[in-house]
């Protein structure tokens, strides 16, 4: 699909260019009726948060904090302060729009000045975008357009747009400075350069950066005044850049960056589409296109229960989704299951405190102005899709029964080991019981310099040895696009759903794997229901050096009759049946210290080792998983 097949620059000229955006995308500052319609509880929460910034001692951004990323590999010293500045401005801006008494204007001016005085809006981790990378500090003469720069630019554009009159009453130089910095740091680099990889005009394949950066640039273009010809040229470039993103999306809507990245992938595509839709009073839209619909549906196809999602790749099992945006997507594509996921998740919405980073003004405004309507509508049943098959992504998910989280849930993936935000995890699977995790995908630790470096696969969570796949003759899976799944099959019926995959291509030649076929079957027509894992191998030489790993959030208990017991302390149990004459079972306790992981799993995980007892050159083994009864 190409966006420009449906929305051309001529359409943009006809429906957007030359049109005032005041009150078009969101209510204008002087539309007091609209702002007064925000529920009182939300108004008070935003005002309380904003009041904490009155007479605030704003943290400085030191050169040593910037350098810390290159010297120590840590993003936190610099990124946390920069994110706090944006979070504060977002909070203060919303509060001033709600109250309209000028109480927050001076602190808004303070943080505007701080942002405008920053040497760079680009995060240290992204300074590889420079034409001359390798410096410990940023070159002020080469502004770089990354995710962070885009977020800062869009927020300043909204501030200037909404607070035009009150800021100009303080001094016209405030908005003039914003215009200058937006031009210098964002608009000019976007116009002049085609080599930012996320634009899609080079050889590197794009990912979520493309819609994310373009959404922020589109915001700036719509809200800022500039020469019509230049704005037209830039908007045309945005449309062509978004085409590069859509061209590499799977027809099945699957996102190889994982469901946790949905908000920054399909969710950011939605921001672009919604900006065009609202700016044109609904004239420009592609919400009826199949690919746009499938990209939205991916998020509920990966939902397990509540806030638990299938989290292959760099994702968290407890995903922080933006449920108001999910609900909006569902409204636009007229999908009740997507609306349901958004509605249910949004019931937990709270105004974020200032410790939260990454706040997007656009997304907070959607939450603000849809809060009442979402809560007013009768609750819709959760999606809980019974069978999901994404043939392009090579991901399957299945549960015992449609519409309920009761019973067994399983998901498995194929793909290749050079996916965006890749882990070496071909053939990896997860198992949940009654919506609770038992065999898991660990996720990813807090990002550091190492995460996106040549040393990425030195990080334990990225290695196949910490996923539910075999280690063969001492060899784990290798990274790279050539290491991939083969002969992926899928079949389902009312009683059975089966996934098959050849794993040999995921291992180096030295492993001597002629074939390793894995099939995973959910038998839901039986009583009790069961998940059957079948491993069939052919090796170059006989060996007993075969390990099957299972990662669990519960401490395993072993019996002498070939059953592994997993209990979650909430009355849910999983039993794993294996042939004790063929396999020796052990477990390893993993102490978890990273805060991104402890938030989900606490301080302990367990790696179950199933070690082959006898040397084989060929073998077939079957493992069975059932729900244990309390």
TrEMBL record:
Subcellular location: Cell envelope
Domain of life of the native organism: Bacteria
InterPro entries documented for this protein: Chondroitin_lyas, Hepar_II_III_C
Taxon lineage: Bacteria, Bacillati, Bacillota, Bacilli, Bacillales
Pfam family, one: Hepar_II_III_C
Name of the protein in its database record: Heparinase II/III-like C-terminal domain-containing protein
Main location, first listed in the record: other
Gene Ontology terms for molecular function: lyase activity
Coiled coil residues, start to end: none
Domain Heparinase II/III-like C-terminal, chain residue ranges per copy: 414-479
GO cellular component: cell envelope
